[in-house]
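re the bet — no i am not wrong, look at it urself. input seq straight from the record:
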Amino acid sequence: MASRYFLLCLLLMTLSQAVSSQSGKFESFDGTQIAYTDEGSGETILLLHGFINSRKSWDKTALKKDLLNAGYRVIIPDLRGNGDSDKPQTEEAYQDNAEVKDVLLLMNHLNIEKYKAVGYSRGSIVLAKLLTEDDSIKKAVLGGMGIDFTNADWDRRIMFAKAFDGEVNEETKGAVDYAKSIHADLRSLHLQQKFQPVTSVSELNKIAIGVLVICGDEDNDNGNAQELSIAFKNGSLKRVPGDHNGTYKTIGFSLSVLQFLD
């Protein structure tokens, strides 16, 4: 009898683990297939990846591991044009905050009513716009980002949009070469930059939830992080060791984020 009970418990544990970790795709508003992973159980956290990246960029980070160990449900999409999601080639597929619509529909698809969210680099830019559209978010973290994305004519965005359309310069050559090395879709990357969401300072001023802006102490790539933090009614700033490409992988980043989310 005891052995049967043990086997039953083992089976239930196995089934529970299978249910708590899954990959999937769903069809967004325009037919684009968006890939995502859904792991763990408990309070929901959304993670949004950066430019020339995918959901897999979070896999070996301290943050993802720590969130799952802390009992969170972690949802990570491949934003359109990246990873296993479709990579549409038309301008229309990226206009009018298409990526934000994808995330809204994903959370609806998964029947999630309330959640917290973490973005890094370009993922923070998408998340900032999402905060203006979705009152289901209880807290948010914008990582690796300063105030510059609030400018519709941000020169860095325009420079990278041109780079992935063939107009490469010394500053953008490394990014383009890296994208080619991982066989990323250059046309999609160009369109992601050309139609990147823009959230004005006045829009950020209206966001009432707690927002943590967190950057590496060697990261000033995207403008003044302190100015971004004070644009929110309940914003705060945290500096941790690291540069732009590495900070989100660090233990310091994870500890700061978890402390804020708790």
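see?? Residues 2-19 form the longest helix (18 residues). told u. also The chain has one domain: 17-150+198-261. so pay up
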